[in-house]
Design a protein that fits this description.
The protein is built from no helices and 11 strands. It is mainly β. Strands 2, 4, 5, 6, 9, 10 and 11 form a 7-stranded mixed beta sheet that branches. Strands 1-3-8-7 form a 4-stranded antiparallel beta sheet, with no helix packed on it. Strand 7 and strand 8 form a beta hairpin. It starts with a strand and ends with a strand.
Length: 124
């Protein structure tokens, strides 16, 4: 079992920045890929970014490339999502998720552990 807790959401103006954190506890954190997803009202939960166990490989949705950066600190059992140049369309609940296995997942159904989510609201 892996427990995940997100933090760092809030209200920000367009063009601003936020850093989300995902703190993990439970089983060996370094065994898992960690992904960030977001879900806007009435929409599906969508992939945003993911990182492998070592932090050496990162993956991004096209919509956030060049604006968001995912990183991890295994000593702190924490993954971060630095979000810059935020846009109103980034408004959503952001979730972190953990996936065991040998490859990254881009679909929500490939992740077995989820946090409770943190709200990000970007005003225009």
């Amino acid at each position: 079992q892996v427990q995940l807790v997100e933090s760092g959401g809030g209200l920000v103006q367009a063009g601003g920045s936020l850093r989300l954190s995902c703190a993990a506890s439970g089983r060996t954190f370094t065994s898992y890929y960690i992904g960030w997803f977001h879900q806007a009202p009435g929409k599906e939960r969508e992939f945003v970014a993911a990182i492998d166990w070592s932090g050496g490989r990162t993956y991004y949705a096209d919509s956030v490339k060049g604006r968001f950066t995912i990183s991890r600190d295994n000593a702190k059992n924490t993954v971060y999502l630095q979000m810059n140049s935020l846009k109103p369309e980034d408004t959503a609940v952001y979730y972190c998720a953990a996936r065991s296995g040998l490859r990254v997942g881009f679909n929500r159904y490939e992740y077995g552990y989820w946090g409770q989510g943190t709200q990000v609201t970007v005003s225009s």
